[in-house]
Amino acid sequence: MPRHAETPPLAPVRAREIGAAAERGSTETLPPLSLYAHLPWCLSKCPYCDFNSHALTAPLDERAYIRALIADLDADLAAGADCFQGRALCSVFIGGGTPNLFGAASIAELLREVRARIPFTPSCEITIEANPGAGHADLRGFRNAGVNRLSLGAQSFDDAMLARLGRAHSAADIVQTAAAARRAGFDNLNLDLMFGLPGQTPEQGLADVRRALALAPEHLSWYQLTIEPNTLFHARPPALPDDDSVWRLQCAATELLHRRGYRRYEVSAYALTKGALKKTCRHNLNYWRFGDYLGIGAGAHGKWTRPGAVVRTRKHRNPARYIRLARAGRCRVETRAVAGADLLFEFALNALRLTDGFRASLFHRRTGLDAGLLERRLAPLIRRGLVERRGAPGRLRYAATPLGARFLDDVLVEILPESQPLDSATTSSYAQSAGVAPRAVAVAPVKLPAPRNL
Ligand code: SF4
To answer: What pLDDT, on the 0 to 100 scale, is given for residue 443?
Structure first.
Protein backbone atom coordinates (compact mmCIF):
# COMPACT_ATOMS: atom_id res chain seq x y z
CA MET A 1 0.00 0.00 0.00
CA PRO A 2 1.45 3.44 -0.85
CA ARG A 3 2.40 5.41 2.16
CA HIS A 4 -0.39 7.71 3.08
CA ALA A 5 0.33 11.40 2.76
CA GLU A 6 -1.90 13.12 5.26
CA THR A 7 -1.49 16.72 4.27
CA PRO A 8 1.96 17.07 2.78
CA PRO A 9 3.34 20.56 2.33
CA LEU A 10 2.77 21.83 -1.19
CA ALA A 11 5.76 22.11 -3.45
CA PRO A 12 6.28 25.80 -4.11
CA VAL A 13 5.43 26.84 -7.63
CA ARG A 14 7.74 29.43 -9.12
CA ALA A 15 6.24 32.88 -8.85
CA ARG A 16 6.79 33.54 -12.57
CA GLU A 17 4.55 30.58 -13.37
CA ILE A 18 1.72 31.79 -11.25
CA GLY A 19 -0.59 34.50 -12.37
CA ALA A 20 -1.51 37.32 -10.05
CA ALA A 21 -5.06 36.07 -9.85
CA ALA A 22 -4.03 32.67 -8.59
CA GLU A 23 -1.60 34.23 -6.14
CA ARG A 24 -4.31 36.44 -4.72
CA GLY A 25 -6.43 33.33 -4.28
CA SER A 26 -9.57 35.42 -4.21
CA THR A 27 -12.74 33.35 -4.47
CA GLU A 28 -13.83 35.74 -7.22
CA THR A 29 -11.01 34.55 -9.44
CA LEU A 30 -11.19 30.86 -8.55
CA PRO A 31 -12.77 28.44 -11.04
CA PRO A 32 -16.19 26.85 -10.55
CA LEU A 33 -16.16 24.03 -7.99
CA SER A 34 -17.65 20.54 -8.49
CA LEU A 35 -17.74 17.37 -6.44
CA TYR A 36 -17.22 13.83 -7.71
CA ALA A 37 -18.22 10.90 -5.47
CA HIS A 38 -17.06 7.45 -6.58
CA LEU A 39 -19.15 4.38 -5.69
CA PRO A 40 -16.95 1.51 -6.88
CA TRP A 41 -19.13 -1.60 -6.99
CA CYS A 42 -20.85 -3.31 -9.94
CA LEU A 43 -22.87 -6.49 -10.37
CA SER A 44 -19.98 -7.91 -12.39
CA LYS A 45 -16.81 -6.62 -14.07
CA CYS A 46 -17.11 -5.83 -17.79
CA PRO A 47 -14.15 -7.21 -19.80
CA TYR A 48 -13.28 -3.82 -21.33
CA CYS A 49 -13.45 -1.78 -18.11
CA ASP A 50 -10.32 -0.34 -16.51
CA PHE A 51 -12.18 1.83 -14.03
CA ASN A 52 -11.74 1.31 -10.31
CA SER A 53 -14.84 -0.88 -10.17
CA HIS A 54 -15.27 -4.18 -8.37
CA ALA A 55 -17.76 -7.01 -8.72
CA LEU A 56 -19.95 -7.15 -5.65
CA THR A 57 -19.21 -10.42 -3.87
CA ALA A 58 -20.73 -9.69 -0.45
CA PRO A 59 -23.70 -7.67 0.81
CA LEU A 60 -23.06 -3.97 0.31
CA ASP A 61 -22.60 -2.00 3.56
CA GLU A 62 -24.04 1.22 2.19
CA ARG A 63 -23.95 3.01 5.52
CA ALA A 64 -20.24 2.31 6.09
CA TYR A 65 -19.36 3.59 2.62
CA ILE A 66 -21.50 6.74 2.85
CA ARG A 67 -19.91 7.53 6.23
CA ALA A 68 -16.47 7.01 4.71
CA LEU A 69 -17.32 9.42 1.89
CA ILE A 70 -18.35 12.08 4.37
CA ALA A 71 -15.24 11.56 6.49
CA ASP A 72 -13.20 11.81 3.28
CA LEU A 73 -14.95 15.09 2.41
CA ASP A 74 -14.37 16.47 5.90
CA ALA A 75 -10.65 15.73 5.61
CA ASP A 76 -10.46 17.44 2.19
CA LEU A 77 -12.37 20.50 3.38
CA ALA A 78 -10.12 20.80 6.42
CA ALA A 79 -6.94 20.37 4.35
CA GLY A 80 -8.13 22.83 1.71
CA ALA A 81 -9.83 25.35 4.00
CA ASP A 82 -7.82 28.12 2.31
CA CYS A 83 -9.39 27.41 -1.08
CA PHE A 84 -12.90 26.13 -0.27
CA GLN A 85 -13.98 28.90 2.09
CA GLY A 86 -16.97 30.79 0.66
CA ARG A 87 -17.35 28.59 -2.42
CA ALA A 88 -20.41 26.65 -3.57
CA LEU A 89 -20.76 23.52 -5.69
CA CYS A 90 -21.94 24.08 -9.26
CA SER A 91 -22.24 20.33 -9.88
CA VAL A 92 -22.18 16.99 -8.11
CA PHE A 93 -21.53 13.74 -9.96
CA ILE A 94 -22.18 10.41 -8.26
CA GLY A 95 -20.33 7.94 -10.47
CA GLY A 96 -18.95 4.45 -10.41
CA GLY A 97 -19.12 1.64 -10.58
CA THR A 98 -22.87 1.26 -10.48
CA PRO A 99 -24.19 3.83 -8.02
CA ASN A 100 -27.74 2.51 -8.31
CA LEU A 101 -26.63 -0.50 -6.31
CA PHE A 102 -27.10 1.99 -3.46
CA GLY A 103 -30.58 2.79 -2.23
CA ALA A 104 -32.22 6.20 -2.47
CA ALA A 105 -31.95 6.67 1.32
CA SER A 106 -28.15 6.38 1.09
CA ILE A 107 -27.94 8.80 -1.83
CA ALA A 108 -30.22 11.22 0.04
CA GLU A 109 -27.99 10.97 3.12
CA LEU A 110 -24.88 11.59 1.03
CA LEU A 111 -26.36 14.70 -0.59
CA ARG A 112 -27.75 15.97 2.73
CA GLU A 113 -24.36 15.62 4.44
CA VAL A 114 -22.50 17.23 1.54
CA ARG A 115 -24.93 20.15 1.49
CA ALA A 116 -24.52 20.60 5.26
CA ARG A 117 -20.81 21.19 4.67
CA ILE A 118 -20.67 23.12 1.43
CA PRO A 119 -23.53 24.99 -0.26
CA PHE A 120 -24.92 24.16 -3.69
CA THR A 121 -25.50 26.89 -6.26
CA PRO A 122 -29.23 27.32 -7.04
CA SER A 123 -28.82 25.62 -10.43
CA CYS A 124 -26.45 22.90 -9.19
CA GLU A 125 -26.44 19.94 -11.59
CA ILE A 126 -26.63 16.67 -9.62
CA THR A 127 -26.00 13.57 -11.72
CA ILE A 128 -26.14 9.92 -10.76
CA GLU A 129 -24.84 7.16 -13.00
CA ALA A 130 -26.99 4.06 -13.24
CA ASN A 131 -26.87 0.78 -15.06
CA PRO A 132 -30.10 -0.62 -16.48
CA GLY A 133 -31.54 -3.55 -14.65
CA ALA A 134 -29.02 -3.29 -11.79
CA GLY A 135 -29.89 -2.89 -8.18
CA HIS A 136 -32.45 -0.40 -6.99
CA ALA A 137 -35.08 0.76 -9.40
CA ASP A 138 -35.97 3.59 -7.04
CA LEU A 139 -35.33 6.32 -9.55
CA ARG A 140 -38.11 8.38 -7.98
CA GLY A 141 -36.25 8.10 -4.67
CA PHE A 142 -33.07 9.43 -6.33
CA ARG A 143 -35.07 12.27 -7.86
CA ASN A 144 -36.66 13.09 -4.47
CA ALA A 145 -33.18 13.07 -2.94
CA GLY A 146 -32.32 16.00 -5.21
CA VAL A 147 -30.67 14.21 -8.13
CA ASN A 148 -31.68 16.11 -11.29
CA ARG A 149 -29.72 14.30 -14.02
CA LEU A 150 -29.53 10.58 -14.77
CA SER A 151 -26.70 9.04 -16.78
CA LEU A 152 -27.63 5.61 -18.00
CA GLY A 153 -25.00 3.10 -19.17
CA ALA A 154 -26.71 1.72 -22.26
CA GLN A 155 -23.59 0.91 -24.37
CA SER A 156 -25.56 -0.95 -27.09
CA PHE A 157 -29.11 -1.98 -27.96
CA ASP A 158 -28.02 -5.28 -29.46
CA ASP A 159 -28.53 -8.11 -26.95
CA ALA A 160 -25.83 -10.29 -28.54
CA MET A 161 -23.38 -7.38 -28.37
CA LEU A 162 -24.32 -6.61 -24.76
CA ALA A 163 -23.54 -10.24 -23.91
CA ARG A 164 -20.18 -9.98 -25.69
CA LEU A 165 -19.41 -6.85 -23.70
CA GLY A 166 -20.23 -8.69 -20.48
CA ARG A 167 -23.03 -6.28 -19.68
CA ALA A 168 -25.48 -7.41 -17.01
CA HIS A 169 -28.57 -6.06 -18.81
CA SER A 170 -30.58 -6.35 -22.01
CA ALA A 171 -31.77 -3.77 -24.52
CA ALA A 172 -35.27 -4.08 -23.04
CA ASP A 173 -33.82 -3.16 -19.62
CA ILE A 174 -32.45 0.10 -21.11
CA VAL A 175 -35.83 1.03 -22.58
CA GLN A 176 -37.64 0.19 -19.32
CA THR A 177 -35.16 2.12 -17.16
CA ALA A 178 -35.32 5.18 -19.44
CA ALA A 179 -39.13 5.11 -19.25
CA ALA A 180 -38.97 4.73 -15.45
CA ALA A 181 -36.61 7.71 -15.32
CA ARG A 182 -39.11 9.87 -17.20
CA ARG A 183 -41.96 8.72 -14.92
CA ALA A 184 -39.78 9.57 -11.92
CA GLY A 185 -39.47 13.14 -13.22
CA PHE A 186 -36.00 13.13 -14.78
CA ASP A 187 -35.98 15.70 -17.59
CA ASN A 188 -32.22 15.51 -18.09
CA LEU A 189 -31.18 12.07 -19.26
CA ASN A 190 -27.82 11.02 -20.67
CA LEU A 191 -27.16 7.74 -22.44
CA ASP A 192 -23.66 6.27 -22.63
CA LEU A 193 -23.30 4.43 -25.92
CA MET A 194 -20.24 2.76 -27.41
CA PHE A 195 -19.17 2.10 -30.99
CA GLY A 196 -16.37 0.22 -32.72
CA LEU A 197 -17.56 -2.88 -30.88
CA PRO A 198 -16.35 -6.44 -31.60
CA GLY A 199 -17.59 -7.43 -35.05
CA GLN A 200 -19.84 -4.35 -35.29
CA THR A 201 -20.76 -3.20 -38.81
CA PRO A 202 -21.47 0.48 -39.55
CA GLU A 203 -25.13 -0.45 -40.01
CA GLN A 204 -25.28 -2.05 -36.55
CA GLY A 205 -23.55 0.95 -34.99
CA LEU A 206 -26.00 3.31 -36.68
CA ALA A 207 -28.93 1.16 -35.53
CA ASP A 208 -27.68 1.61 -31.93
CA VAL A 209 -27.64 5.38 -32.37
CA ARG A 210 -31.20 5.29 -33.79
CA ARG A 211 -32.41 3.19 -30.82
CA ALA A 212 -30.80 5.69 -28.46
CA LEU A 213 -32.45 8.62 -30.27
CA ALA A 214 -35.83 6.90 -29.97
CA LEU A 215 -35.53 7.42 -26.20
CA ALA A 216 -35.03 11.18 -26.78
CA PRO A 217 -32.18 11.65 -24.30
CA GLU A 218 -31.12 15.23 -23.61
CA HIS A 219 -27.48 14.15 -23.91
CA LEU A 220 -25.55 11.36 -25.58
CA SER A 221 -22.02 10.24 -24.70
CA TRP A 222 -21.02 8.29 -27.80
CA TYR A 223 -17.52 6.91 -27.47
CA GLN A 224 -15.33 4.33 -29.15
CA LEU A 225 -14.40 1.10 -27.42
CA THR A 226 -10.67 1.09 -26.74
CA ILE A 227 -8.69 -1.82 -25.39
CA GLU A 228 -7.05 -0.74 -22.16
CA PRO A 229 -4.26 -2.44 -20.20
CA ASN A 230 -5.34 -4.52 -17.21
CA THR A 231 -8.61 -5.60 -18.75
CA LEU A 232 -9.84 -8.98 -19.91
CA PHE A 233 -10.09 -7.65 -23.47
CA HIS A 234 -6.42 -6.67 -23.29
CA ALA A 235 -5.46 -10.23 -22.35
CA ARG A 236 -7.77 -11.75 -24.97
CA PRO A 237 -8.43 -9.02 -27.56
CA PRO A 238 -11.63 -9.37 -29.56
CA ALA A 239 -11.65 -8.64 -33.30
CA LEU A 240 -12.58 -4.99 -33.69
CA PRO A 241 -13.85 -3.30 -36.87
CA ASP A 242 -11.18 -1.75 -39.10
CA ASP A 243 -10.57 2.00 -39.27
CA ASP A 244 -12.48 2.49 -42.54
CA SER A 245 -15.57 0.81 -41.18
CA VAL A 246 -15.42 2.87 -37.98
CA TRP A 247 -14.88 6.04 -40.00
CA ARG A 248 -17.94 5.36 -42.15
CA LEU A 249 -20.02 4.84 -39.02
CA GLN A 250 -18.72 8.02 -37.42
CA CYS A 251 -19.54 10.15 -40.45
CA ALA A 252 -23.04 8.71 -40.77
CA ALA A 253 -23.84 8.88 -37.05
CA THR A 254 -22.49 12.40 -36.62
CA GLU A 255 -24.64 13.59 -39.50
CA LEU A 256 -27.71 11.81 -38.09
CA LEU A 257 -27.16 13.29 -34.62
CA HIS A 258 -26.76 16.79 -36.01
CA ARG A 259 -29.92 16.41 -38.08
CA ARG A 260 -31.79 15.38 -34.94
CA GLY A 261 -30.64 18.44 -33.02
CA TYR A 262 -27.71 17.04 -31.07
CA ARG A 263 -24.74 19.40 -31.12
CA ARG A 264 -21.34 17.86 -30.66
CA TYR A 265 -19.50 20.01 -28.12
CA GLU A 266 -16.70 17.63 -27.10
CA VAL A 267 -14.94 14.64 -28.66
CA SER A 268 -17.58 12.17 -27.42
CA ALA A 269 -20.38 14.39 -26.11
CA TYR A 270 -23.57 15.48 -27.90
CA ALA A 271 -26.12 17.78 -26.30
CA LEU A 272 -29.69 18.28 -27.42
CA THR A 273 -29.86 21.89 -28.56
CA LYS A 274 -33.12 23.76 -29.14
CA GLY A 275 -32.70 27.49 -29.56
CA ALA A 276 -31.03 28.77 -26.43
CA LEU A 277 -31.59 25.44 -24.65
CA LYS A 278 -28.43 23.37 -24.67
CA LYS A 279 -28.27 20.30 -22.43
CA THR A 280 -24.51 20.10 -22.07
CA CYS A 281 -23.10 18.34 -19.01
CA ARG A 282 -22.03 21.08 -16.60
CA HIS A 283 -19.97 18.71 -14.51
CA ASN A 284 -17.87 17.44 -17.39
CA LEU A 285 -17.61 20.94 -18.86
CA ASN A 286 -16.05 22.02 -15.58
CA TYR A 287 -13.40 19.29 -16.02
CA TRP A 288 -12.76 20.25 -19.62
CA ARG A 289 -12.51 23.94 -18.74
CA PHE A 290 -10.00 23.08 -16.03
CA GLY A 291 -12.34 23.89 -13.16
CA ASP A 292 -11.88 22.65 -9.61
CA TYR A 293 -13.40 19.53 -8.09
CA LEU A 294 -13.33 17.63 -4.86
CA GLY A 295 -12.93 13.90 -5.50
CA ILE A 296 -14.21 11.59 -2.77
CA GLY A 297 -14.44 7.81 -2.78
CA ALA A 298 -12.11 4.89 -3.49
CA GLY A 299 -9.56 5.92 -6.11
CA ALA A 300 -11.15 9.33 -6.72
CA HIS A 301 -9.07 12.20 -8.07
CA GLY A 302 -9.52 15.87 -7.21
CA LYS A 303 -8.18 19.21 -8.43
CA TRP A 304 -8.02 22.28 -6.21
CA THR A 305 -6.83 25.77 -6.97
CA ARG A 306 -5.31 27.22 -3.84
CA PRO A 307 -3.27 30.36 -3.35
CA GLY A 308 -0.15 29.90 -5.45
CA ALA A 309 -0.77 26.43 -6.83
CA VAL A 310 -2.97 23.97 -8.66
CA VAL A 311 -3.16 20.81 -6.57
CA ARG A 312 -4.06 17.25 -7.57
CA THR A 313 -5.39 14.80 -5.00
CA ARG A 314 -5.89 11.04 -5.13
CA LYS A 315 -7.61 8.63 -2.74
CA HIS A 316 -6.76 5.06 -1.82
CA ARG A 317 -8.16 2.65 -4.46
CA ASN A 318 -9.10 -0.48 -2.56
CA PRO A 319 -12.69 -0.04 -1.30
CA ALA A 320 -12.32 -1.95 1.99
CA ARG A 321 -9.07 -0.18 2.89
CA TYR A 322 -10.50 3.11 1.69
CA ILE A 323 -13.36 2.79 4.20
CA ARG A 324 -10.95 2.10 7.07
CA LEU A 325 -8.55 4.89 6.09
CA ALA A 326 -11.31 7.42 5.41
CA ARG A 327 -12.75 6.90 8.90
CA ALA A 328 -9.32 7.69 10.30
CA GLY A 329 -9.06 10.77 8.04
CA ARG A 330 -6.16 9.22 6.11
CA CYS A 331 -7.50 8.02 2.72
CA ARG A 332 -5.82 10.76 0.64
CA VAL A 333 -2.70 9.05 -0.73
CA GLU A 334 -1.48 11.92 -2.87
CA THR A 335 -1.59 15.70 -2.67
CA ARG A 336 0.76 17.36 -5.14
CA ALA A 337 1.16 20.73 -6.74
CA VAL A 338 1.23 20.56 -10.54
CA ALA A 339 4.37 22.02 -12.07
CA GLY A 340 4.13 24.69 -14.77
CA ALA A 341 4.96 22.51 -17.80
CA ASP A 342 2.48 19.87 -16.66
CA LEU A 343 -0.14 22.54 -16.09
CA LEU A 344 0.01 23.62 -19.73
CA PHE A 345 -0.32 20.02 -20.92
CA GLU A 346 -3.10 19.12 -18.49
CA PHE A 347 -5.05 22.21 -19.49
CA ALA A 348 -4.67 21.40 -23.19
CA LEU A 349 -5.49 17.71 -22.64
CA ASN A 350 -8.88 18.82 -21.38
CA ALA A 351 -9.69 22.03 -23.22
CA LEU A 352 -8.69 20.88 -26.72
CA ARG A 353 -11.39 18.21 -26.46
CA LEU A 354 -14.00 20.97 -26.70
CA THR A 355 -15.33 21.64 -30.18
CA ASP A 356 -15.23 25.39 -29.58
CA GLY A 357 -11.85 25.19 -27.91
CA PHE A 358 -11.01 27.81 -25.31
CA ARG A 359 -10.02 31.40 -24.83
CA ALA A 360 -6.40 32.30 -24.18
CA SER A 361 -7.67 34.32 -21.24
CA LEU A 362 -9.20 31.15 -19.72
CA PHE A 363 -5.82 29.43 -20.00
CA HIS A 364 -4.23 32.27 -18.02
CA ARG A 365 -7.01 32.41 -15.43
CA ARG A 366 -6.96 28.65 -14.79
CA THR A 367 -3.21 28.02 -14.82
CA GLY A 368 -1.67 31.38 -13.94
CA LEU A 369 0.68 30.86 -16.90
CA ASP A 370 1.36 33.51 -19.52
CA ALA A 371 -0.80 33.06 -22.62
CA GLY A 372 2.34 33.73 -24.71
CA LEU A 373 3.75 30.42 -23.47
CA LEU A 374 0.71 28.63 -24.85
CA GLU A 375 0.97 30.48 -28.16
CA ARG A 376 4.60 29.36 -28.52
CA ARG A 377 3.69 25.70 -27.85
CA LEU A 378 0.72 25.78 -30.21
CA ALA A 379 2.40 27.66 -33.07
CA PRO A 380 3.84 24.52 -34.77
CA LEU A 381 0.43 22.86 -34.55
CA ILE A 382 -1.23 25.91 -36.04
CA ARG A 383 1.26 25.82 -38.92
CA ARG A 384 0.44 22.12 -39.51
CA GLY A 385 -3.30 22.81 -39.58
CA LEU A 386 -4.02 20.79 -36.41
CA VAL A 387 -5.01 23.74 -34.21
CA GLU A 388 -6.64 26.99 -35.25
CA ARG A 389 -6.43 30.43 -33.71
CA ARG A 390 -9.54 32.60 -33.95
CA GLY A 391 -10.58 36.05 -32.83
CA ALA A 392 -8.99 39.42 -32.36
CA PRO A 393 -6.03 40.06 -30.04
CA GLY A 394 -7.35 40.12 -26.49
CA ARG A 395 -10.15 37.72 -27.42
CA LEU A 396 -8.05 34.92 -28.90
CA ARG A 397 -9.48 31.40 -28.99
CA TYR A 398 -7.73 28.14 -29.79
CA ALA A 399 -9.45 24.98 -30.98
CA ALA A 400 -8.46 21.72 -32.61
CA THR A 401 -9.23 21.78 -36.35
CA PRO A 402 -11.26 18.89 -37.78
CA LEU A 403 -7.93 17.24 -38.66
CA GLY A 404 -6.52 17.93 -35.20
CA ALA A 405 -9.64 16.49 -33.58
CA ARG A 406 -9.14 13.29 -35.60
CA PHE A 407 -5.62 12.91 -34.31
CA LEU A 408 -5.80 14.52 -30.91
CA ASP A 409 -3.00 12.40 -29.44
CA ASP A 410 -0.65 13.70 -32.14
CA VAL A 411 -1.62 17.20 -31.14
CA LEU A 412 -1.05 16.50 -27.47
CA VAL A 413 2.36 14.92 -28.05
CA GLU A 414 3.60 18.34 -29.23
CA ILE A 415 2.50 19.90 -25.98
CA LEU A 416 3.65 17.14 -23.65
CA PRO A 417 6.48 18.13 -21.31
CA GLU A 418 9.71 17.09 -23.07
CA SER A 419 10.64 14.52 -20.41
CA GLN A 420 7.49 12.51 -21.08
CA PRO A 421 7.23 10.35 -24.21
CA LEU A 422 3.58 9.86 -25.11
CA ASP A 423 2.36 6.31 -24.97
CA SER A 424 -0.94 4.94 -23.83
CA ALA A 425 0.31 4.53 -20.25
CA THR A 426 1.48 8.14 -20.16
CA THR A 427 -1.74 9.40 -21.68
CA SER A 428 -3.82 7.30 -19.35
CA SER A 429 -1.86 8.35 -16.30
CA TYR A 430 -2.09 12.01 -17.30
CA ALA A 431 -5.73 11.57 -18.14
CA GLN A 432 -6.56 10.10 -14.77
CA SER A 433 -4.60 12.67 -12.82
CA ALA A 434 -5.97 15.41 -15.03
CA GLY A 435 -9.51 14.35 -14.36
CA VAL A 436 -10.29 12.87 -17.76
CA ALA A 437 -11.73 9.38 -17.74
CA PRO A 438 -9.29 7.11 -19.62
CA ARG A 439 -11.98 5.75 -21.89
CA ALA A 440 -12.79 9.29 -22.83
CA VAL A 441 -9.22 10.39 -23.53
CA ALA A 442 -8.09 7.45 -25.61
CA VAL A 443 -9.05 9.21 -28.78
CA ALA A 444 -6.09 8.55 -31.04
CA PRO A 445 -8.00 6.13 -33.26
CA VAL A 446 -11.11 8.29 -33.33
CA LYS A 447 -11.50 9.79 -36.77
CA LEU A 448 -14.36 12.19 -36.48
CA PRO A 449 -14.68 15.06 -38.91
CA ALA A 450 -15.07 17.68 -36.27
CA PRO A 451 -16.21 17.57 -32.83
CA ARG A 452 -18.37 14.92 -23.09
CA ASN A 453 -17.60 14.04 -17.89
CA LEU A 454 -16.26 12.16 -14.58
S1 SF4 B 1 -18.07 -0.62 -17.48
FE2 SF4 B 1 -19.41 0.26 -15.90
S3 SF4 B 1 -20.75 -1.47 -15.32
FE4 SF4 B 1 -18.98 -2.38 -16.37
S5 SF4 B 1 -17.52 -2.88 -14.74
FE6 SF4 B 1 -16.98 -0.83 -15.51
S7 SF4 B 1 -18.02 0.61 -14.18
FE8 SF4 B 1 -19.01 -1.42 -13.87
So the answer is: 28
